[in-house]
Write the structure tokens for this entry.
Amino acid sequence: MSIEAVKVVEVVGGERTLGKTIRNTRDLIAAVRAGFPAATVEYVVDAGKMSLTEVDFAVMPRKTLTRRRKAGMLTAEQSDRLVRVARVIALAEETFGSPDKAKAWLRRETGPLDGVSPMSLLDTTEGATQVEHLLNRIAYGIAA
């Protein structure tokens, strides 16, 4: 199961936070390349999707976040990292049917991921891919 660009954008605050409409993957790629507004990180934290500690770990260090807030924009690389995490969050929310259940699952240590929490793997593309594969197995009822 692949998650739609629109669902990923909802995790980071949608059109209101991005300041533009994202209708498809091409629009999302263009927005990432241009850099997201720093407000997207604030939205993700305020909405409870990620903690500041998780942003520090998976997206950018806190000192960098402070500088990005002053500049008003994230770099393309930081935006890409945020999208990587947002994609997994959106997939977890779709798989479990609720943001609260997804949030709990993402933070719980799980055997199929060698006893670590899914969120702890989202600092790398390979880790995020492993979490996505596990979510797909859960969604399709394959023994995880």
The CA atoms of residues 93 and 102 lie 5 Å apart. The radius of gyration is 15 Å.
